[in-house]
Amino acid sequence: MNLSELFEKNSKVSAINSGQGKKTFLKKKVFSILYVEEQKTIADLCIPIGVSIPTITRIMQELKDEGWVTELGTGESRGGRRPVYFGLNPGARFIVGIEITSKYLRINIFDLKNRPVAKTVEKETELKNTKVFLEVLKAEVEALISRQNINKSKILGAGISIPGLIDVKTGTSYSYPSLGEKPLYQVFEKLLGIPAYIEHDTKVMALGESWFGLAKNRSNVLCLNVGAGIGLGMIIQGQLYQGHSGFSGEFGHIQMEPNGELCDCGKIGCLETVASGTSIVKKAKQKIEEGTNSIIRKAIEGETEKIRLPNIISAAKQGDQFAIELFEEAGVYLARGLAVLIHLLNPEMIILGGDMAQAGNLLSDPIQQKLNKYTINRIRQDTVIHISELGEQAVLFGTIPIVMTQILSQEPKINNHNN
Ligand SMILES: [Zn+2]
């Protein structure tokens, strides 16, 4: 058995009894440590793995011969020979990251140092038009893999972020039933010919923040995704919180206005109907048609249908009173919802992400101000609010942990009695 087989999805390896199997297991341990910590000497690796220097030396030589690791250079001598640092060969394996939204696709490939190997591919396509969507996805993924000259056997898997309700137990989508009754990962594996791992978009954003963004090395963080809709990814005690069926985080559908507007979900007055990008755009169109004065009018040449969220953000940043007030109003509602979460969960940080977060402090200031009003002082002081630094990249980067947490957790057990 070689290391590649151990990385296969749903690897059947459950117990390793032979000497060969144990060696593969040790290689996996080395791989995991080098993936997380980037560089180690042989002496550094002995302690966490719990084997002797000659054993690790042999293992490293084999991993080098097989192309998994490479020498990075030598460190300072501590009296004897200079120690050699080893790291993963970044091109030994790759991950395909796919961000699916209702309106567009984003795709890139990442190496083992989590670096994108190409410029991100962006393609407009409607998810609800399933047949065309799947054709476009397949063509774009295959074109990118072939442009980068990567053999499919070197792809550990595709991490796929998808919007809407997904049942984690059955793996099916409730929001896009036309994707089929089979678990989504099977649909995408058949389509792309590579292992696929699926996660809900807002949870992917939280994973991105947790591995690469402001939530790194933090245990209790709420990641708010305010875009077309409003979602919440929760890192609780260091883990992504799923809930019973994976439906956790539907923050956008708590009721704010009992006599409000009808939401996409079928309920009345949801947070999404008063504080999402969609709701702000709708309100801007309405008010400008009614004659409200705003510089947005100039950017759209009088055609209110042309108003998009970036127009409103840009106007607000230029000091447009009307645009600023739209964000203030949304901020009040978001703060009312967040106050409940702060009282319930006592998070150390709330990260504001999604398209609306591009408004920066024009959104975060009103939220902060209202939180001062709505929350108990002692509890609120524990929580800092930040605009995401990863911004629109958070989701695509979050596709890496979808794949890697599965790969790294596939650990066979060693049956010591037979060794
Ligand atoms: Zn709703």
Describe the protein's topology:
Elements: H1 3-7, E1 15-16, H2 19-37, E2 40-41, H3 42-49, H4 53-65, E3 69-74, E4 84-88, E5 94-100, E6 104-110, E7 121-124, H5 130-147, E8 155-162, H6 184-192, E9 196-200, H7 201-212, E10 221-226, E11 230-236, E12 239-240, H8 272-275, H9 277-289, H10 296-299, H11 309-317, H12 321-345, E13 349-353, H13 361-374, H14 377-380, E14 384-387, H15 394-409, E15 413-414
Parallel strand pairs: 1-15, 5-8, 8-9, 10-13, 13-14
Antiparallel strand pairs: 2-4, 3-4, 5-6, 6-7, 10-11, 11-12
The site of zinc ion has 6 residues, from loops.
Number of strands: 15
Bound molecules: zinc ion
**CATH class identity of the largest domain:** Alpha Beta
Q: What is the count of distinct domains?
A: 3
Approximate shape: globular
The name of the CATH architecture of the largest domain is: 2-Layer Sandwich
Unreliable residue runs = 413-419
Please describe what this structure looks like.
This protein folds into three domains: 3-89, Winged helix-like DNA-binding domain superfamily/Winged helix DNA-binding domain (Arc Repressor Mutant, subunit A), CATH 1.10.10; 94-206 and 397-404, ATPase, nucleotide binding domain (Nucleotidyltransferase, domain 5), CATH 3.30.420.40; 215-389, ATPase, nucleotide binding domain (Nucleotidyltransferase, domain 5, 2-Layer Sandwich), CATH 3.30.420.40. The longest helix is centred in the C-terminal third of the chain and has 25 residues, at 321-345. The chain has helices at 3-7, 19-37, 42-49, 53-65, 130-147, 184-192, 201-212, 272-275, 277-289, 296-299, 309-317, 321-345, 361-374, 377-380, 394-409, and strands spanning 15-16, 40-41, 69-74, 84-88, 94-100, 104-110, 121-124, 155-162, 196-200, 221-226, 230-236, 239-240, 349-353, 384-387, 413-414. The chain has 419 residues and is α/β, with parallel strands linked by helices. Helix 6 (184-192) links the parallel strand 8 (155-162) and strand 9 (196-200). The chain has 15 helices and 15 strands.
